[in-house]
From TrEMBL:
<feature type="domain" description="Cupin type-2">
    <location>
        <begin position="42"/>
        <end position="108"/>
    </location>
</feature>
<dbReference type="InterPro" id="IPR011051">
    <property type="entry name" value="RmlC_Cupin_sf"/>
</dbReference>
<protein>
    <submittedName>
        <fullName>Cupin 2 conserved barrel domain protein</fullName>
    </submittedName>
</protein>
<dbReference type="InterPro" id="IPR013096">
    <property type="entry name" value="Cupin_2"/>
</dbReference>
<dbReference type="InterPro" id="IPR052044">
    <property type="entry name" value="PKS_Associated_Protein"/>
</dbReference>
<dbReference type="InterPro" id="IPR014710">
    <property type="entry name" value="RmlC-like_jellyroll"/>
</dbReference>
<dbReference type="Pfam" id="PF07883">
    <property type="entry name" value="Cupin_2"/>
</dbReference>
Length: 122
């Protein structure tokens, strides 16, 4: 089987419904071979926050690569830092604030894969 690979710098970013800038590193609508999940890099600019939202179907994992932020998850707020991973069950309201001076960069894994249609304000 041929290995699938993408390069971050060759993936065009776009703006999601929650307000973050995202690069879809692997997504079934773009990449052959992947079927049940997606992996994206999301960037929240300093002083910005994402809209509080939820996904009816997708379970998400956020993994913080760099920067510092505040996670809102099911009404609870807590700090997130590089190396932290957060589970977001389907239907759970969530969002991120970036109060810091640097970009907050996270990896987002969704199963099933992320879709705009599965994203709604919370």
């Amino acid at each position: 089987m041929k290995a699938m690979r993408t390069r971050r710098d060759q993936v065009e970013p776009y703006r999601t419904k929650d307000g973050s800038t995202v690069r879809e590193l692997m997504h079934p609508s773009v990449h052959a071979g992947i079927r049940n999940q997606s992996l994206a890099e999301a960037v929240v600019q300093p002083g910005a926050k994402t809209l509080v939202h939820r996904h009816a179907k997708s379970e998400e994992l956020y993994h913080v690569l760099s920067g510092q932020g505040v996670m809102l998850l099911a009404g609870e707020r807590f700090a997130v830092n590089p190396g932290d991973t957060v589970l977001i069950p389907p239907g759970t309201p969530h969002g991120l604030d970036n109060p810091g001076p640097d970009n907050l960069i996270i990896l987002c894994c969704c199963a099933p894969a992320y879709s705009h249609e599965d994203t709604e304000p919370a």
